Structures are given as C-alpha cells and as structure tokens.
Amino acid sequence: MKSVFGHGVVIDTLMFPVRCYTCNALIAHKYDEWCERVCNESMRQILDSFDMKRMCCRRMFLTHVHVTADTIQYSNIDQIMDRAGTVMMLEPQNIRRASCD
C-alpha cells in the first residue's frame, strides 16, 4: 500500500487506521481510492459514494494527517551521535542568522 503525496514523495499508507476509532467499522480498504479521487472530486461526493453515513467514519478520512510525509524531512541519514548522546547534523539544512545592526 503506497501512495504519492505532495511533491512526488511516496509514502506508506499503513499509518491510516484499519477501523474507525468510535464504531469499529472497517475503513482502511477505501483509503487508496480516497487518495486517488481526493484531488479531482469533492470530499463529500467521495464519502457519499463510499456509502459512509456515520460521521465518526467520515471524520477518520477528513482529519487524517500524513505523519510519515511530515517526518520524512527530518531524516537521520546525515546525523551522528557521540558518546554523550549528542545528535549533530553533518550538513545543516537551515541556517538562521540574526543581524546586530
């Protein structure tokens, strides 16, 4: 189960819940189709076509956050750790500078 999110970043869809937290209905089997259709159709039309009547199940799709896509930018590939447990970046990504003028 993989899907494309954002700028062509491929992420795992295994982070989407298998069942609704409230009513315990199966919802994960509809997630791949949701990802394909959400760019072209309204969310309401998609959820209606899934015959999803309960608000708790609809909420699972509407409020899902791609945690994997958010954390992929904080990769630990170029980090090293010394004996004290300090994490250092070999090449800093964002450099902030404050002017003293």
Write up this protein.
- Strands 1-2 form a two-stranded antiparallel ribbon.
- The protein is elongated and about 60 Å long.
- The chain is of the alpha+beta class and 101 residues long.
- Helices cover 27% and strands 14% of the residues.
- Residues 1-9 have low confidence and may be disordered.
- It has a single domain, classed as Homeodomain-like (Arc Repressor Mutant, subunit A, Orthogonal Bundle).
Largest sheet: 2 strands, antiparallel
Rounded mean pLDDT is 76
Could you say what the CATH topology is called? Arc Repressor Mutant, subunit A
How much strand? 5-15%
Q: For the record, give the distance between the C-alpha atoms at the N and C termini, rounded to a whole number.
A: 53 Å
Rg for CA atoms: 20 Å
Quaternary class = single chain
Number of strands: 4
CATH architectural grouping: Orthogonal Bundle
Shape: elongated
Task: Give the number of domains.
Answer: 1
Instruction: Please identify the top-level CATH class.
Output: Mainly Alpha
Please write the string of helix (H) and strand (E) elements. EEHHHHEE
User: So, the CATH homologous superfamily?
Assistant: Homeodomain-like
| Order of strands, widest sheet | 1-2
The chain-level structural class is alpha+beta
Helix content: 25-40%
Quick overview:
About 25% of the residues lie in helices and about 15% in strands.
Task: Give the key terms.
disordered N terminus, 101 residues, 4 strands, alpha+beta, two-stranded antiparallel ribbon
